[in-house]
Amino acid sequence: MAVVHGVRALLSLHRSALFQRSFRLIPVQLTSTCLPTRLCSATTKSKKANLEQKKANKSILDNLHLMGVDVEMACQRQPGVFRKNFTNEQGLAQFLQSKGATSEEIASIISRFPRAITRSTEHLEERWELWRKILNNDSEIVSVLERSPEAFFRSSDNKNFENIITFLTSLGFTTKDLERLLLRSPRIFSCSLALIRQKVKFLNDICVELGGTNPEQFTKTVLSRNAFIFSDSIKRIRMNIDFLRTYLKLGNSEMLSFIQGSATRILVLSTEYMQKNLNSVEQMMVSLGCQKADIQKLIHTYPVVLYIRPETLSSKLECLLKVGITLEQILETPKVLDYSTQTILGRLELLQEVGYNFRVNGISVLDNSQKRFLAKIKKIKV
Description:
Among the domains are: 47-150, Alpha Horseshoe (Transcription termination factor 3, mitochondrial), CATH 1.25.70; 323-382, no CATH class. Helix content is 66%, strand content 0%. It contains 22 helices and no strands. The longest helix is centred in the N-terminal third of the chain and has 21 residues, at 2-22. The protein starts with a helix and ends with a helix.
């Protein structure tokens, strides 16, 4: 009898829950006992890290703990490192300290790229000398390592690094160009020379395909503007070029200038992301009264708009339009959208305080460095 009453109670609860859900009185997942996805994922990763620590060479873990390394993070990233019989964590620490790295920087480097402790001191010395041929001092190298340890430690092939430098130099890259590449996109130098050559050939072919007569200069210009092209897939870049050309209806010479100009920054976007953002931009601009020709002009003159998340773009446009700036002015000076919404709002407030007239004076004042902008405000006040 008790069992019957129990079953009836459960059925009653079930019907009650269905009733409440149908009228949206309780969340559909209220009765679920599952943990949130992120929490489950984090728990799983933590369990895996703990398992890897149990398998690891205890002396290595002890050394890293003493050095302040986040061992759990390191075990998640490259667990195989900790099962080796020999590593060089103490030699690595001494080497980096001799170059000016702090103990905190060393711990951060190993936590994020533990394979660094497998490199011999001889290898480290040789690679450091190669980097010093490009960068001016040890502190610059330490800064790059702290930001992107993979760039320095991923490859053990110093000869490949040297060959990449030689190849890029043969393309006309100066030491200053290489320095900029190494500071901005250090991972490039851990790619294989074959992959670098493949990307260069692809860009040369694009130039010739579009009627260009100087493919070497075209390629150098594109890569200097966006070195991330080195590490992106040729298929994606090709799809983006074809997509943009079709949408903008550009001729060969126009497309050639576009690719090596303002478009270089967006060539590495996911094609799906680019198309999705373009649809959002179109809908947004049409709702504000723009024609398709206006939107095409915006994408042509300021393709970086496709980088901006739709919600962010909407908030930027809203705060500009609210103070009396016209859509035509924004289309003429779209680089004002480069700045964060907070920066735009702050500048608009200062300009309103000094009685700045956007319709008479235009909006180019918003497209200035902070130093120049404040100097302009000071001049207006006087």
